[in-house]
Amino acid sequence: xxxxxxxxxxxxxxxxxxxxxxxxxxxxxxxxxxxxxxxxxxxxxxxxxxxxxxxxxxxxxxxxxxxxxxxxxxxxxxxxxxxxxxxxxxxxxxxxxxxxxxxxxxxxxxxxxxxxxxxxxxxxxxxxxxxxxxxxxxxxxxxxxxxxxxxxxxxxxxxxxxxxxxxxxxxxxxxxxxxxxxxxxxxxxxx
Amino acid sequence: xxxxxxxxxxxxxxxxxxxxxxxxxxxxxxxxxxxxxxxxxxxxxxxxxxxxxxxxxxxxxxxxxxxxxxxxxxxxxxxxxxxxxxxxxxxxxxxxxxxxxxxxxxxxxxxxxxxxxxxxxxxxxxxxxxxxxxxxxxxxxxxxxxxxxxxxxxxxxxxxxxxxxxxxxxxxxxxxxxxxxxxxxxxxxxxxxxxxxxxxxxxxxxxxxxxxxxxxxxxxxxxxxxxxxxxxxxxxxxxxxxxxxxxxxxxxxxxxxxxxxxxxxxxxxxxxxxxxxxxxxxxxxxxxxxxxxxxxxxxxxxxxxxxxxxxxxxxxxxxxxxxxxxxxxxxxxxxxxxxxxxxxxxxxxxxxxxxxxxxxxxxxxxxxxxxxxxxxxxxxxxxxxxxxxxxxxxxxxxxxxxxxxxxxxxxxxxxxxxxxxxxxxxxxxxxxxxxxxxxxxxxxxxxxxxxxxxxxxxxxxxxxxxxxxxxxxxxxxxxxxxxxxxxxxxxxxxxxxxxxxxxxxxxxxxxxxxxxxxxxxxxxxxxxxxxxxxxxxxxxxxxxxxxxxxxxxxxxxxxxxxxxxxxxxxxxxxxxxxxxxxxxxx
Lengths: 191, 586
Prior knowledge:
The complex is a heterodimer of chains A (191) and B (586).
Chain A (H helix, E strand, L loop, with lengths): L4 E8 L4 H14 L3 E6 L9 E9 L12 E6 L2 H7 L3 E10 L6 H4 L9 H8 L1 E5 L1 H8 L5 H12 L4 H11 L5 H12 L3
Parallel strand pairs in A: 1-4, 4-5, 5-6
Antiparallel strand pairs in A: 1-3, 2-3
Helix pairs in contact in A: 1-7, 2-4, 5-6, 5-8, 6-8, 7-8
Chain B lengths: L1 E5 H11 L4 E4 L7 H5 L7 E4 L3 H13 L4 E6 H6 L1 H10 L5 E7 L13 H7 L3 E2 L4 H17 L4 E6 H4 L1 E6 L15 H4 L3 H24 L4 E3 L2 E9 L1 H9 L3 E6 L1 E3 L3 H10 L2 E5 L5 H8 L18 H9 L3 H12 L15 H10 L3 E3 L24 H13 L7 E6 H17 L5 E6 L28 H7 L4 E5 L4 H13 L4 E6 L13 E4 L18 E2 L8 E2 L9 H5 L5 E4 L4
Parallel strand pairs in B: 2-3, 2-4, 4-5, 5-7, 6-7, 10-11, 10-13, 14-15, 15-16, 16-18, 17-18
Antiparallel strand pairs in B: 1-8, 6-12, 9-11, 19-22, 20-21
């Protein structure tokens, strides 16, 4: 039985994780495999912690990824990377966007934003820190952070660029196709 | 060619392929996208009704008129629609009628996690439970056949993980189904006691026929495996079972009411130990045990929240779950939670800031503004169900007297007011209450993703529609003290609330300002802080705005320029004028 690949996309409501998962879902589908994508909509979207689960392989049953079984965690925000760390498989990789967004308990002073998150991540997993906001701005728009991160993911998964670029073309607003393609390429060639 | 569709998209597609021509719903997570998807299928008339009861009544009318109909709602919406549901179960249908109930185990976006499968048993109508998107589409088409063959509405129950998970679906073409003849049949559709007494035996007889049908229905299947362990399951839990226990024998039930007694008995007898794996209530288990069969269910599996493949594996392998939980929780303690919050620029924020400042009691309601309950705004005392705020406020007054409600407001959104706030308000007027009702009118149904309603002037298909005049409406209901206030104006907001809570008669303040996420409707500009002037008084932090961060020296705020949209609230909270606004900020 072929292994199922499990990818968790985590971030903060409004960061564009849903579009990223759409692109990833379409790419996975194009590989001729079974794919399941699970999202939570509704209340949690309002600036809350959000997660999309993408699973693909020969046969996929549950749409939900269990603790300790994500091959890659694609984190749009540092604290969210730390929050979902228990879901990473022992030999998994964390791709983390170098961005901090304070949750409300930190804003109100009820809690502190954890220090040295990268230290905590690196002690347990291969961690790739991506200055995605800078890279997105260079590509032409701060909003392309999600596509930069997908570029990094595509490289980690050892997948060719073509199907990703095609999915991006089909799924992003027409005016932003070139910016998003540039963002993807920047992510793909990161490191 | 297969397409990646969510359960909700697949249900819309299934309705299209099944020849449905009418659909109605009120938005509610996780059901909303079903109706939104009908925009793709112009062959189907689809509408947002003001609430679930109206949606089902529209569906029943269309069915009696001969059309195939789909009605969709979230689990708690079925409570609102329960009145017509219980009686259409008696009348039966003409064109096929399917009611989709999207349940929310785990309460990702709901106020309870009721198990709506009991509605099928309560109404004695067939219940179908798909486990992925392909099944959602295929089973929906079967549901229409069952509905018409057995003259019954069908309850089609999904859960969040089916509704919002995407999987591959084979698309097929639409089967055009002509309208069935309309024939007046008062004995079937006019439920006078004399007629209803004739229908009840029909319902009982129908249930027996459905049970017999279900014995051999292709909706159910046995997947033979080890005879040591057998598992009876349905819906999304089937997927968890297959993932967790690939070697077990499985009885996968697609139609879970009325249950097939012989099929289940044979399966239980074919294995050494038989389990019933189902989320929430022991719905199947109770019936199976009532037949005297030996199965293990809720002795092992929780009645609370979602199940998962891991949980099933742990329970069936006898592994101590507390150990697994402990491994993950070590770290979790130090990680600050990230609860949902009102967006930067949200027009509700100024109202809750003012309520907190005036230290008012608040009977709340369902919508984005329920987030006014969370810190630092912390301004909500009750939130029960759609429309409850106004009745709750009136009840408090009748229990404790007028003085008690002179520092109390009922808070309700525009869409929720249309859904079920009108009757609450007319009751206050009728029974000489003095409630102060704040209608937070952001011109949309925001929480579920911006659906239109009778107050927005647009239909589901974005066609122009007559727009309800809220001021005229509440005046017509008998409220004489009515005013419209801009919630971005904190002074006016405070003044209006202070005046109206003191009034000895019903009053309504309509806080009108479009949701900040509506395209082209938001404010412009960006705030900035002059740290030379700022005295670190922290008044602005009481807004709970995610765009204001306090990481500098002392408590000097800093503005997150990517989040701020220049609503101007923080500028008004600063009595020293330290927060300024750049209008042309890009």
